[in-house]
Structures are given as structure tokens and as C-alpha cells.
Amino acid sequence: MKLIKRNKENKGNEEIEVKPEKSVVREIIEWTACVLIAVILALLVRYFIGTPTIVQHPSMTPTLLSNDRLILNRLHVKLGKEIEKGDIITFEAPSRIFVPAYQITDNNYVAEYDKEINGLIDNFTYYVLEIGKTSYIKRVIAVAGEHIKIEDGNVYINGELYEEPYLPEGTVTTDGGGYFLDLVVPEGTVFVMGDNRGDSTDSRCFGCIPLEKVESKVLIRFWPFDKFGKVE
User: In angstroms, how far is the first alpha carbon of the chain from the final one?
Assistant: First the structure.
């Protein structure tokens, strides 16, 4: 917009450019768009790349303690990279966390997931925002095709004693209250246990975890600061 102003000294006309003030509504829209973009980017990073989390249960003691702060590597899973023995992972909690002995057969060694998530909004709420979703953090002990057997306080893989240097000396691996103690890990699954063998609900109780239910691999611990670094 331009206004014409009379110059008294030279009798001429002087053009003055006047910039219109920014609309309040337009400014609100711009700020709202910025906030939405920031939220969307944060969710994408959290779902596909990595996310912070807090350990809330002592099942991984002494490796991880309650209230430890971790960074989870989701990209490892999203890219379909291999999950290996010894990895500490997070996964969606099974629908059924205990299967009694009389219900275990040779073809049901896989943990049960029967929760139905229908529709785009429900999927977004459950899998991205993780509202109403429970996740566990455990260590991978055996992978597909391996024969795991828990006997006399020890873990055997394919008939050989499995060395676990991350456990305190003298650790005894009991049945953990479960009955999945002697099996061949089915294809597309992993057998997991907590390092705190006396206080962990894991594959001994609910069976092997399907790889599609694995959410992330633990990357680093950033708190407490004196323990900052890679978790093994």
C-alpha cells in the first residue's frame, strides 16, 4: 500500500510505503502450523528412530535398575536388522502373561497376542502414541531354531551350558514360575528373560516373542550420569 504525502518545501508529492499490519488470525495460523509440524516430526523420530524411556521394574537388575533412563534404538528394528542373543530389547507385552502347563503343546510355544486394534485412529493411538500399551524390557537368550533348556539352575542352548557373563556370579536360573523350560524356539521368534532371574515375568511364563512385536533395541543409558554409555 502506498500513500501520497504533500511536501510543503518543494510542493511536490512524496510517496511513502506503508506496510499493512499482519493479521492476528494469520499469525495464530502460522504458529499453530509450526507447532503441528514440530509435534509430527517428534512423533516420527520417536516411532521410527529412537525414544527415551524409564525403567520401571527390577526385572533386569543388576544390569538395569528402576528409574534408569535409556535411549531406545527403534531404527534397528524398523530396518529389519537381526536381533541377536544377548541383545536387550523392548517388546509389546503379551495378552496372556502366564500359560499353565496343561495348555502347553508342541505347537504353542509362541506368546499370545489377541488385542484387536481397528481403524487408523486406534492404530495411531496405540502404536504411535502408545496409549493403553504395555511394553516389557528383557534380554534375548535364544533365537529361532535353537533348543533352550532350563534345568538345575542353568540355561542350556543346543545341549551346551550357556555362558552369561552379565549375570552376577552364582546366579541361579529357576523356572520363574513358568513352564516354557524345554523347547526349540519357533521361526520368527526369540526367547527372552530378565537378568533378575528370581523376579522376572518372561518367556518362561508366556512363551517366545514374535519378532513383529519387538519394538526396539536398548542403545544407551543416559541417567544416572555416572553410568552413561552403552548397555550390555
Answer: 66
Cβ–Cβ under 8 Å, residues 148 and 190 = no
CA dist., res. 60 & res. 89, Å (int): 11
pLDDT digits (tens, 9 = 90+) for 59-109: 999 999 999 999 999 998 888 899 999 999 999 999 999 999 999 998 899
Q: What is the 3-state secondary structure (H, E, C) of the chain?
A: CEEEEECCCCCCEEEEECCCCCCHHHHHHHHHHHHHHHHHHHHHHHHHCEEEEECCCHHHCCCCCCCCEEEEECHHHHCCCCCCCCCEEEEECCCCCCCCHHHCCCCCCECCCCCCCCCHHHHHHHHHCCCCCCEEEEEEEEECCCEEEEECCEEEECCEECCCCCCCCCCCCCCCCCCCCEEECCCCEEEEECCCCCCCCCHHHHCEEEHHHEEEEEEEEEECHHHCEECC
pTM for the full model? Answer: 0.83
Nearest to 202 by CA among 89, 84, 117: 89
What sign has the CA pseudo-torsion 13, 17, 18, 20? positive
**Cα dihedral sign for 152, 157, 160, 164?**
negative
